[in-house]
Design brief:
This protein has six helices and five strands, in the order E-H-E-H-E-H-E-H-E-H-H. By secondary structure, the chain is of the alpha/beta class. Helix 1 (17-29) links the parallel strand 1 (5-10) and strand 2 (32-38). The longest helix has 17 residues, at 97-113. 34% of the residues are buried. It binds 4'-phosphopantetheine. 4'-phosphopantetheine binds at residues 9-11, 38, 77-78, 106, 109-110.
């Protein structure tokens, strides 16, 4: 039996129940799962700072009782970070066919950069297949109720941050 450490990279702005579902599934298949937040994302102005996102994920991991999951941040190439961490795999979620093309390209590029690093794809629970951080932020800003789609601690932070409420 070999020890398998995997990286679950992403922007996580913010963490959703879909992410948590994937962490739950992924952490059952690997010995150690490292949730890694990209620091230099080109996705525009984030809602939460990287430090806030680390805190929220830490709290969510502790709350869910995952003992082999940790959170950290990274910059630069994912393959370099994975190698430095001694990770053999990258975990990514696929929600719908529309995710596939982007994920396939990233996985193949990462394989080109480091043929030893495998990408593992898992599907979240069906009830989260339409959930994305981008949609959560957009709907929340317009007053929509997203409380069933993010952990309660994320909901509280979003309300505190934006000064807006639910519905
Ligand atoms: O949650 P996201 O925004 O879909 O995550 C994207 C992420 C962070 C996994 C991806 O942008 C990434 O790995 N960036 C690091 C830079 C890198 O390694 N690029 C080459 C892979 S195509």
């Amino acid at each position: 039996m070999q020890f398998v450490k995997a990286i679950y990279p992403g922007t996580f702005d913010p963490l959703t129940n879909g992410h948590l579902d994937l962490i739950a599934r992924g952490s059952k298949f690997v010995d150690e799962l490292v949730v890694a937040i990209l620091r230099n994302s080109d996705k525009g102005t984030p809602l939460f700072t990287v430090a806030e996102r680390v805190e929220m994920i830490q709290e969510a991991i502790a709350g869910a009782g995952f003992t082999n999951v940790s959170v950290t941040t990274f910059d630069g190439l994912l393959v370099d970070f994975a190698r430095a961490q001694g990770a053999k795999a990258v975990l990514r979620g696929i929600r719908a066919i529309s995710d596939y093309e982007y994920e396939f390209q990233m996985a193949m590029m990462n394989r080109k950069l480091d043929p030893k690093l495998e990408t593992l794809f898992m599907m979240p629970a069906e009830k989260y297949t339409y959930v994305s951080s981008r949609l959560i932020k957009g709907v929340f800003k317009l007053g929509g109720d997203v409380s069933e789609l993010v952990p309660p601690l994320v909901m509280q932070r979003m309300m505190a941050k934006t000064g807006t409420g639910v519905g």
